[in-house]
């Protein structure tokens, strides 16, 4: 039982990391209608920035905040100078652009910092606390808490602030938004920036666990995409819930299902997807879209 | 489309070229000459040249498969390398068990095709981009799976199989024989695929790529054709896996790593999406560029590939294969621009070249 609770808590923590990445993907998709395969790559870059800063003697927390700010700017710049040109065109081309960006970002990280694993200092102590009689790791609890707070902040931004309203307007209908005087281009930059910042939170929090390499988040990206499919692209809440389900299920399957084990647990979300696709093609929480020809 | 519109416009130089291309001698002679050249090539090249050429052939076939599903049918697939790996493993296992080579070849085609069919049946239910999101999992699940099934795959050690030594009495060296095999099988695959994408199915693929609603209103089921395209792509991937074993004679889980899958896609887009010749160029790119960058600095490979891909998408959305046409267009346009100042240059070029100059622009806006 104790092991079970530990597995669930650890699963929630990795699930939160996937959730943050998945939410960033949904954010970009709702703003610009494309899937950003470079979301994980940008987050890795943020983790490297934080790592460099901690090596300069900055405390971990401060370094992470700095990396988040850098990511925001980077995301906005990428949108303006790379994605903007492909936004209105063929979505497949735009996807290839983001794959090129992923290759480029991975290449830049590998070129500057090499492909060897680097130790990233943890924001949280590596102890365990006793929770309802069961000891669980502080790092897992902390990671989950930070990401939940980040998501709540984002939600408040979107629902309660003027800029959030503008962002939503642009996502729903860019043309009408432009007619009512909103600076659509700049808002799209903000959307990409926010997505990159959220990714940076995920990247820096998971880096101590995975150790820093240029391809660190390739697997996490796959999980995040699985969560996006399962939750449905139109439902942020669904995506987060799906990410948590995936995180917990893969942890449990790794331990309790003999054949899967730790090496094959990456297959779990895809088995889940195949099952869900056969039953609910629009995702667990997504709405079916009807297109008028 | 652009080519059809371009043909009436050129003023002086093309007519002889066109008539040359239309003479029966050239139409039948040129392919024969090409075949003859390919038949002689292995005999004159050095061993390393032959080896490079054979590897280019292998990956050109893999890129061709990717092109069927992505370039022609418009479904982004990030999993093509998985089918290459599967084909390679089937080949290696079959050879180690001492099965007949023809049977091994058939299995190396069929098993990836069946795997592709199963994946596509589920993935194609989702809208366009979701196929990319599902297929990205294939290499990422494939690597640990290959390590796990070690009684078939040899685990992390991988499998090696030597079955392509030149037959006794043929007088060929091994590398020459292997190159012949690649040229023969690869050539047939290219030929068949060229026929496929030019025929009835190719037109159906193009409609599905262009507009799924139009396709279904014409009685072409997008779902069915997506599944078909993906299955064919997997089958061709299996063939390339067989050829991979012919040339490399060794496979490990690393063969189908995520990075290689991305590289394959990069090679396809840079070579030219939706083009047979572009697949060949893609194969050249896949093999030659890492060889070159490794000679300079191995850590630069990924950086260079990403930068090149973005550069090509910005400047030459049709890939390298569209370079001659783009250059020709630019050359034609620049005298026309100056021609407005100096009055009568070629008389026919005024109305025609204007549309020819504008046409590609609007087209590029629509696509890129």
TrEMBL record, chain A:
Gene Ontology CC, one term: plasma membrane
Name of the protein: Amino acid/amide ABC transporter membrane protein 1, HAAT family
GO biological process, one term: amino acid transport
Family that this chain belongs to: Belongs to the binding-protein-dependent transport system permease family. LivHM subfamily.
The keyword Cell membrane appears for this protein: yes
GO molecular function: transmembrane transporter activity
TM annotation in the entry: 6-27, 34-54, 60-82, 94-116, 136-158, 190-208, 220-247, 253-279
InterPro entries for the chain: ABC_transp_permease, BCAA_transport_permease
Membrane topology summary: Multi-pass membrane protein
Key words of the record: Amino-acid transport, Cell membrane, Membrane, Transmembrane, Transmembrane helix, Transport
Organism: Geodermatophilus nigrescens
A Pfam family per the record: BPD_transp_2
Subcellular location, record wording: Cell membrane
From TrEMBL, chain B:
GO molecular function: branched-chain amino acid transmembrane transporter activity
Pfam families associated with the record: BPD_transp_2 (PF02653)
Membrane topology, record value: Multi-pass membrane protein
Spans annotated as Disordered: 1-20, 333-368
Keywords: Cell membrane, Membrane, Transmembrane, Transmembrane helix
InterPro entries from the UniProt entry: ABC_transp_permease, LivM-like
GO CC, one annotated term: plasma membrane
Subcellular location: Cell membrane
TM segment ranges: 25-45, 52-72, 102-123, 129-146, 179-199, 227-250, 262-288, 300-323
Record-given protein name: Amino acid/amide ABC transporter membrane protein 2, HAAT family
Upper taxonomic lineage: Bacteria, Bacillati, Actinomycetota, Actinomycetes, Geodermatophilales
């Amino acid at each position: 039982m104790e092991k079970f609770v530990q597995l669930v808590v650890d699963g929630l923590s990795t699930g939160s990391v996937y959730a943050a990445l998945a939410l960033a993907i949904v954010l970009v998709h709702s703003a610009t209608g494309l899937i950003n395969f470079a979301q994980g790559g940008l987050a890795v870059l943020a983790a490297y920035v934080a790592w460099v800063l901690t090596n300069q003697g900055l405390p971990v927390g401060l370094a992470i905040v700095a990396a988040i700010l850098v990511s925001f700017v980077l995301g906005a710049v990428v949108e303006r100078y790379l994605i903007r040109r492909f936004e209105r065109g063929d979505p497949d081309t735009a996807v290839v652009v983001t794959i090129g960006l992923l290759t480029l970002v991975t290449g830049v990280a590998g070129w500057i910092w090499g492909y060897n694993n680097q130790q990233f200092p943890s924001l949280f102590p590596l102890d365990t606390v006793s929770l309802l009689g069961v000891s669980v790791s502080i790092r897992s609890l902390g990671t989950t808490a930070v990401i939940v707070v980040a998501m709540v902040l984002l939600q408040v931004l979107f629902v309660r602030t003027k800029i959030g309203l503008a962002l939503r307007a642009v996502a729903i209908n860019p043309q009408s938004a432009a007619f009512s005087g909103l600076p659509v281009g700049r808002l799209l930059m903000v959307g990409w920036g926010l997505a990159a910042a959220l990714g940076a939170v995920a990247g820096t929090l998971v880096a101590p666990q995975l150790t820093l390499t240029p391809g660190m988040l390739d697997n996490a990206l796959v999980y995040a995409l699985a969560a996006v499919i399962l939750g449905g692209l139109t439902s942020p809440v669904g995506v987060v819930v799906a990410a948590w389900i995936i995180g917990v299920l893969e942890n449990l399957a790794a331990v309790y299902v003999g054949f899967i084990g730790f090496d094959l647990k990456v297959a779990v979300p895809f088995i889940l997807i195949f099952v869900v696709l056969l039953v609910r093609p629009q995702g667990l929480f997504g709405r079916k879209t009807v297109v008028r020809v | 489309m652009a080519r059809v519109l371009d043909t009436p416009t050129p003023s002086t130089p093309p007519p002889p070229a066109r008539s040359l291309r239309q003479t029966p001698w050239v139409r039948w002679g040129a392919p024969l000459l090409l075949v003859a050249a390919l038949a002689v090539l292995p005999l004159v090249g050095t061993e390393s040249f032959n080896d490079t050429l054979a590897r280019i052939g292998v990956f050109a076939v893999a890129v061709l498969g990717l092109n069927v599903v992505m370039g022609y049918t418009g479904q982004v697939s990030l999993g093509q390398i998985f089918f290459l790996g599967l084909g390679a493993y089937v080949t290696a296992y079959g050879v180690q068990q001492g099965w007949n080579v023809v049977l091994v070849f058939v299995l190396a085609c069929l098993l990836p095709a069946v795997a592709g069919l199963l994946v596509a049946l589920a993935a194609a239910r989702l809208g366009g981009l979701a196929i990319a999101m599902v297929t990205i999992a294939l290499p990422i699940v494939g690597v640990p799976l290959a390590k796990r099934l070690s009684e078939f795959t040899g685990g992390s050690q991988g499998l090696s199989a030597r079955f392509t030594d030149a037959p006794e009495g043929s007088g060929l060296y091994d590398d020459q024989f292997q190159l012949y095999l690649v040229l023969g099988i690869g050539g047939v695959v290219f030929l068949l695929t060229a026929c496929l994408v030019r025929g009835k199915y190719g037109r159906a693929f193009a409609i599905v790529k262009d507009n799924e609603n139009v396709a279904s209103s014409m009685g072409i089921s997008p779902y069915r054709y997506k599944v078909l395209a993906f299955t064919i792509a997997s089958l061709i991937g299996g063939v390339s896996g067989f050829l991979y074993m012919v040339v490399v004679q060794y496979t490990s889980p690393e063969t189908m790593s995520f990075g290689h899958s991305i590289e394959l896609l990069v090679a396809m887009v840079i070579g030219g999406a939706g083009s047979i010749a572009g697949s060949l160029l893609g194969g050249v790119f896949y093999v030659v560029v890492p060889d070159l960058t490794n000679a300079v600095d191995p850590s630069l490979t990924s950086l260079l590939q990403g930068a090149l891909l973005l550069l090509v998408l910005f400047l030459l959305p049709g890939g390298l294969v569209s370079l001659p046409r783009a250059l020709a267009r630019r050359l034609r346009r620049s005298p026309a621009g100056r021609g407005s100042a100096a009055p009568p240059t070629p008389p026919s070029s005024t109305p025609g070249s204007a549309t020819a100059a504008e046409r590609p622009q609007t087209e590029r806006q629509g696509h890129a």
